[in-house]
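Model: Ready when you are.
Researcher: Fold this.
Model:
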Amino acid sequence: MLRRFSIEVAKDYFNFASAHFLIFTDGRREPLHGHNYQVSVTMEGELDRAGIVLDFISFKPLVKQVCDALDHRTLIQTKSSAIKVRKTAREVEIFYKKQKLLLPRGDVILLPVVNTSTELLAEYIAGQIKRKVRQNFSATIRAMEVAVEEARGQKGIFRDEFWTGSRAYFTRGAEVE
């Protein structure tokens, strides 16, 4: 029998309040609006000699850093074919059909996604967490799942494998400081 282990972190402080808008399949843009997003993360992997997948105490601050980086910002999708984005040192201009949104540069995070749906935000957050885990942990992680909830009972989920080359997991020898 295959033994599988995972940890899940879903703290109240894994949150961010951000504005966004979606571009729907028919090309309509929804109005700019905001959510108080909630994030949870599940990491699946092998137990270390101490019998843990990842140390909660060291892992939770990494998730919080990713959430904090998105907090109190307007999230703009840069890979959408429906909008054009032009940035300067002081401003971000977003062009959609005959509309133009002008926002202060410091209030905007430009995300390399086609839309700012909860599903794609979960994928973006997963990528940020994966990078931080690889930099900070010596662990054998097989998979991760990130959920982004925009309203109670309404969330997008992204699941990813930790592929490196032809291996379905990674091992890194860095020590956590």
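Researcher: Now this one.
Model:
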Amino acid sequence: MALAEIVDTTALWQTIVAALVTGIGVTLAFSIAVFGIARFVELGRDGRSVAAAGFGAVAAVALIACAGAVVVGVIVMTQK
């Protein structure tokens, strides 16, 4: 009995790659959100409102991406 008959290696590798890509992607998006929020606060205190608004927008987009990843993950887990 071959190992390939017991374990679907293609599906296993797809799961491993998807987990790595998603884990790195969500971590990167959240770190960009933290960076954007920190710069938003710092630039806002310095009175540079245009630059602060830009970093606020970056933070908002990154947070939306994180929330979207959570929603997609829940949908994938709850479907058969």
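Researcher: Key takeaway?
Model: The helical segments are 3-6, 9-45, 49-78.
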